[in-house]
Amino acid sequence: MSKLAAQDKFLDLSDYGRPIAKLFANQLKNTRFTPIHVTLLFGVSGLVAIYCILQNHYFLAAFFIILKSIIDAADGELARIKNTPSYTGRYLDSVFDIILNFLFLMTICYVSKTSFWLTLISFFCIQLQGTLYNYYYVILRNKSVGGDSTSKIFEYKSPKALPGESQKSVDILFRIYTIVYGTFDKIIHALDNDAYKVKTFPNWFMTFVSIYGLGFQLMIIAIMLPMNSIEYIVPFFIIYSIFIFVIIGIRKVTFKA
Fold first, then answer.
1. Does 1 reside within a domain?
2. Residue 50 lies in a domain
């Protein structure tokens, strides 16, 4: 099942790894590998990238960051191919993402001798950017006929476990998810609290929003590292946050609820 109906599909600048991810997932469809195994694999790729940054091997770090983005898309693809959607996989994926984002930035902070507090602000900005993208994307997915609805616009309570997964695991991961993402969700909801009332978002708008997708953010880091611009990564993402207000402004003026 696709995440979106055909008429709602857009050019997602953060989803460049999807074609390779589909090929990878298809190679695993008749094996014992599960989407959870693939999620763990992208975590390993992220940790290898961090090691490469620490060793000043920036081209290799860029490679493993991009590889992490590709594998990150493959777990969901494998779940769709095997028809084994799960909240466990969904929450684990998201928790791994935020942990790796934090470690990426802290490693960059250490190597580039950037201010720790400036790095924390940059981390906050990156997560807020990603939350805005996810907010609009999940709204679109939930409105899309036949689209994927595993992710909810508002998540206040742990969902009922799907077949093949443990309710206890879902509950634990849901609590962790709400702790690490809850603040960012509340801020974005407060900034644009009636976006969910909009019938749909046009493709061009979602393509613009996708500059805040995690894949695109990681691609920026992967480009800046080999360019010996590591000291500019942290301040870049702080300044990059200005588009949050531009995007929300366009939504409110152009697509009123």
1. no
2. yes
189 assigned to some structural domain: yes
Q: Are 112 and 56 in contact (CB under 8 A)?
A: no
Residues 144-163 have pLDDT tens digits of 655 455 566 667 788 898 88
Model pTM score: 0.92
> Encoding tokens for residue 186?
């509340």
Measuring CA to CA, which residue among 243, 226, 248 is closest to residue 62?
226
- CA contacts within 13 A on the Cβ side of 229: 13
Structural domain boundaries enclosing 220: 6-254
Q: Where are the alpha helices (DSSP H) in 58-153?
A: 58-81, 87-112, 116-143
CATH number for the domain harbouring residue 149: 1.20.120.1760
Distance CA 63, CA 72 (A): 14
**Residue with structure tokens 């470690």?**
103
pLDDT digits (tens, 9 = 90+) for 187-239: 999 999 999 888 889 999 999 999 999 999 999 999 999 999 999 999 999 99
- The three-state secondary structure class of 159 is coil
DSSP type of residue 162: P
Domain count for the chain:
1
